[in-house]
Amino acid sequence: MSVSIFFDIFVFLKLYEFMKPSLARILFFSGSAALLVTIVLIFFVGNEIPGGLKITLFLFQCILLGGLLFLFLSKPKGRKKKRTNRKSMTQEEAERKAEIRKARRVAKERRIKESAEVLLKNIADKETLESLGEVLLKNFAQEWSIVRGLVYSRTGDEHFRSVAQYAYYGTEAPPDFVPGEGLNGQVAQDKKPRLLDQISEQYIEVVSGLGAGYASNLLIIPFVSGGKTIALAELASLEEFPEHTMEVLKKVQKNYAKTFKKIMQ
Predict the structure, then answer these.
(1) Which residues of 30-45 are buried (b: 16+ CB within 10 A; e: fewer)?
(2) 211: which DSSP letter?
(3) What architecture (CATH level 2) is domain 123-264?
(4) For a tag on the chain, would you pick the N or C end, based on fewer CB atoms within 10 A?
(5) What's the CA gap between 136 and 249, in Å, rounded?
(6) Strand ranges (DSSP E) for the chain?
(7) Cα(164)–Cα(157) distance, integer angstroms
(8) Contacts of 197 by beta carbon, 8 Å cutoff, 6+ apart
(9) Rounded to a whole number, what is the distance in angstroms from the first to the last CA of the chain?
(10) Which runs of E-coded beta strand occur in 101-173?
């Protein structure tokens, strides 16, 4: 009989551990009441349990076992459903993030395309280096709000000479340079754009033909044809250039280089 009681208590504790469904609660409390009554009666009457108490004990065991069986059968389904819901939510979240990334990529590509179209306006019909340089500076000022700018072209003696200025008020003409000389010359030699953000006024004064104190953001663009830089634009802005600046330049540099080359021939 004691073995039976210990077994009943074990089932009782397992039922309590997993007690969540409403039907299991009913079985739990019913079985708990039967267990208490049985233990009290056994305490008073000893091992000589009348037939009626044996039936009560049997019913009690059936109730506990029924509740435990119910929990074991219903719990896995609940966990499976929970895992399924979690998996479904994870998949939906992944799809939502993928849609957000796609929308951002499409928006960025649209901005790059629109910027390139603005920067390339009215360049095809230009017949002089001066007029092409002026259009270049005007387009960049419209799109990226530059406050000062210079355009240089390569001369026959391998010097770069200014052919167009935007908001340049220096008392002297911007100085010429050769490839490898100063920042402009280094960009011309490397044939790659250079973007400098938040630079000091003193630095602009040292490396730039724009003078000191006018801007803290500098963009230098080489226009390459035949493996060498044939023209160069130096642009200064009070604001930082857009994060997609380099992507836009890839779309416009070749067009400008072709136009510069056609005029120089």
Answers:
(1) bbbebbeebeebbeee
(2) -
(3) 2-Layer Sandwich (3.30)
(4) C
(5) 12
(6) 146-154, 160-166, 194-196, 217-225, 228-237
(7) 19
(8) 216, 217, 240, 241
(9) 112
(10) 146-154, 160-166
- Reading the block at residue 122, the tokens are 């009215």
Judged by DSSP in three states, 77 sits in helix
Query: What does residue 222 show for φ and ψ, rounded to 5 degrees?
Result: -90, 145
Tokens representing 205 are 């004064």
- The residue written with tokens 């469904």 in the block is 21
With tokens 């220096």, the residue in question is 170
Rounded CA gap, 238 and 217, in Å? 6
Provide the 10 A C-beta neighbour count for residue 28: 21
pLDDT digit string (tens) for the chain, length 265 residues: 444 544 555 555 555 555 445 555 555 566 666 666 666 666 666 555 566 656 666 666 666 666 556 555 555 544 555 556 666 668 888 888 889 999 999 999 999 999 999 999 999 899 999 999 999 999 999 999 888 899 999 998 899 999 999 988 777 889 999 999 999 999 999 999 999 987 765 555 434 555 445 567 899 999 999 999 999 999 998 888 999 999 999 999 999 999 999 999 8
